[in-house]
Every structure is written in C-alpha cells, then in structure tokens.
Please model this.
Amino acid sequence: MLEESGMDWHPSCSPELLHLRAHLFQKIRQFFADRTVLEVETPLICKAIGSDPNLDFFTTNYQLPPTQRTLFLQTSPEFAMKRLLAADSGSIYQICKAFRNGESGRFHNPEFTLLEWYRVGFDLSQLMDEVDELLALLFEGSVKLQATQRVSYQSLFQQNTGLNALVFSYQDYADYAHSSGLIDAIAICKHDHLLWLDFIFSHQIQPHLGQNALCMVHGYPACMSSLARNNQDNPAIADRVELFINGVELGNGYYELSDAKEQERRFDNEIAVRQDNKRPNAVKDERLLAALEVGLPNCSGIAIGLDRLLMLLSNSATIDEVLAFSISRA
Amino acid sequence: MAVYSTSEFKAGLKVMLDNDPCAIIENEFVKPGKGQAFSRVKIRNLKTGRVIERTFKSGESLEGADVMDVDMQYLYGDGEYRHFMKPDTFEQYQADEKIVGDAAKWLKDQDSCTVTLWNDAPLAVTPANFVELTIVETDPGVRGDTSGGGGKPAKLDTGAVVRVPLFVQIGEVIKVDTRTGEYISRVK
Model:
C-alpha cells in the first residue's frame, strides 16, 4: 500500500556500501587492537554540551516524573572521553554517532559517524604519524594515495593568498577579496578576523588540498582552537591538525589542552559569543572541568568523519550515497 | 513576498538579488568543522541570463521574486514588440526583442510558448521544446537519398537556419528541437 502511494522506504546507499562500511569498521578495530588502544563507549545524551559558537546542537526532554530536564545530543564524544583519560583509562578510541543541528549538504548529515581516539603520551606529530599509518591501511587496495603532505596553516595562506593568517590587516584582506572576486567576503566578514579566515580558507584554499593525497594542515591560529594547547614555541598558533583528501575535510585533532582554568576561560568566552549571536545557550561541562582539575595526562586526540572517509573510498559524490538512510529518508 | 533562508535555497527557487530577479541553480553547504557555515550559491540573473557565484552566511535570507512561467500563445510581431496571449483569459502581453531574444527565431504565429512574468511583466520567452516549421530555402537535395549522411542548411519560415538531411525539400514541414536547434523529423 505504502509502495503504491509513492512512499520511498529504500536505503540511500547501495548494498556494496553497507559491506564497505562494515569492512572499514573491522579494519579500524583491528588497527587499534594491534596497538592495545582500548575501545570505549560514552553517552550520546548528556547534561552539558560543547560551547563552540559555530555548532548547533539537538536537545531532548528527559522525563523522570516528577522531574524533567533538557539534555543534549553530543556534537562529539570528546568531553566524556577526556573524563575517561583523566580517570587513567590509558589510550582509547571510539566509533560513535555525533549530532550537529542544521548541517545538511553534499558533505553533511546532521547525524554522522566519528572515529575518535586519544593517545596518552603522544604529542601532535606522533599522532600525525599514526593517522598517516591508519589511513594508509584503510586506503590499501582501493584508492592509491600519493605521499602525505604536512603543511602549516600560515604557510598555506601565505602561498595561496599572500596574506598573513596570524596578523589581521583589514585593508590587506579586503584588497585580496577584491582582486580574487570574493565579492561577498567584505560584506560578510567586516572586521572579524576569524570569519575572514574561514571564508578565505573554505573558498580559496581547502578545495585544492590533498589532490589524491592526505594533506595534514597544522599550526592553526590560536584563536581558532578552543580545545588545543597553544604551541610552546609560538603561542600565536595552536597544536591543532586538520586532515584533507581531495579537498574534503576529514578530521580534526589536538595536542589536548589540560589546563582547567584556561579551558574554563575559553568556554566562558564561547558562551558569551553564543549569547551575542543569539544562539541557543550551551551548558558548560563542569564535570569535564573537574576532571581537568584533577589532571588530564599529556595526550593527543583526533576525530575522523567515517562517512566522508567512505565517500572517498567509494568515490561517492554525496554523503547520502554512503548512508543507509540519510536525514531525508530517516 | 515570502522570505527564504539559506537552508531553503533549492534549485529553481526564484529570489531577488541586487534588485534583479534570479533563479537558484545550485546551493552548496560549506562548513569548516570548527568554523562559520556558508552557502555557496550558483544563481542565474533572469534579466541578463548571466550565471554568477555568490556566498551567503548560513541563516541569511533573500526575498522571493514574483516570477511565474505562464503558457501563452504567440500572436504576432509588429516590428517593435512581440505580442502574446493567455489562452484562458485572453489577456495580452507585449515583449520587446531584447526580452524575446533567441526565442524569436522559433516563434510562429499561433504557436504556444512559455512567457516568464516578473511582477506581471514579461521577463523572458521560452519556445516549446519541439516546434514544427516550414522550409522556405534550401539547396535541392538528392531525392531518394535517405542515408542521413551529410546534410545541408535549411532556412525556416521563422528565419531560423537548421541542418537537415539531403532529402528534405523546400515547402516541407519539419520538427525541430529548440533546445539544441537540431532537426528531428519530417512532418507528414
């Protein structure tokens, strides 16, 4: 009956993609088992939520009569995993769902799958080595990748635009926008350095990153990295890395900030920005702060979007093609 | 008029941009994992036909454009204007050559076509996908040659010139695809 009424119940991906996904998960689990990194599971529904001003979250109503309260669907498992690290879990990984409201497009589904892992005792460059090894393993036998590139955010900006990413000059940025045909940049970005960086990076730089290769961009401006440590030698940059293949953003990692005071200051800042922008209120994660207070071991961590990874492995043009049921069919 | 937010930008949506009516062709959601989300939009200016790329911050909005495609009958041209009529209401519209543009070479009196109206004034004219027109000028071909190889130019009664097979003669009616300008078949 429903079929006759035109109700489309079919999956958005092919059966091959279901197999490819299952195989990918197996390889990832084997990779971490071989390195004795522990698989963990943390709650998707929590009392607190990340305060990133550019992320919108889902909320849900938890009813336990006579009380009811608003809880948040997690935008990433980062905070809960850091609490495990602070409780001496050692190195851990997780494959889980994450939720980001309003994100829908060729590369976005509001519910998506992350691989997130933390390595105790690793600095960022050690973590980047491991990312390189994992991705080489996952691409083995499918897409042939060229040699991995490691490049700093600042030098990418310099090469592609001639601009200094760390020092904001409105005139330089506006001149560049003018000469590059970015006619909307000036009206949108005004005097907001961060917005300028996002605009130029996403329009002019990212589409060219990692042609048939993994490109790791590191050394992001400190102002763009709320959960990363600032670099020891240059506090203007953070120990943060982003991964790109064929212009697709695949992952984001940090040498994790462990200073509770500094972390709380950054949360408060972000919450204030959210209020200024009239975004829904975020609830600061006091339990994470308490855990940091006791002590997060020195560690680096990274999250990789597995749906996008599957897109690259299967040469799919849209995220819908790798999901059993994308949001429009959920 | 309704207002549309970036998340509602879909192919075919008609909006006002810089005081001109435009049609959205493509909308790509762009978001750095930790940064501001943008909509990169490919959009056609319906007045000039030009396609441009623009960027909006997610959540920005544009006013809808009162643009409608209406089936009309082409009546006649008076040298300055072309005249069209809504067959159901007999309401008439006139459009100058600039608006009619390339469609002019496919328009035959009494044929139906699509007139795009903006605020109830013609903005563009699209001929039917297939039109039947009479050949008024072409080289005498080789009768009996139905191989379809080669071909020759033929001028039609609306002024359009299309390539036709060698066996097609002056005075014959042919069917043409206006989107490609290609000959389809003879009409008996």
